[in-house]
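Question (not urgent): is this output format expected?
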Amino acid sequence: KNKKKIQLSNFLKSNDYIFIEDFNSLINQILKKNKFKTDAYNVGTSKTYHQLEILHSINKILGTAIKGENKAYFKDKIDTFRANILKTKKTFNWKPRYNLNQGLKSIIKDK
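Got this back:
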């Protein structure tokens, strides 16, 4: 029986993840815009996932049953990080196209 485990830094901490193709499409939009005010722009999807959700999605895609082992490497004071991308979407007429599962499937099928 498969008893593989992977160490995760914090099961319940949630982060905003973005697929590289979405990031690249934003860079292309910025370059096309050519004229814009220098400012800070958040990049992400405005959706959060914790590490166990990601591991579950990977297991589903691969048909595996890898378990997560909680290893608190960092004592973060922030439990959830979600990027507010409203300004980025409006300024560059951009939005992410891929959800977590689509991005993971694309990465995994390339391996």
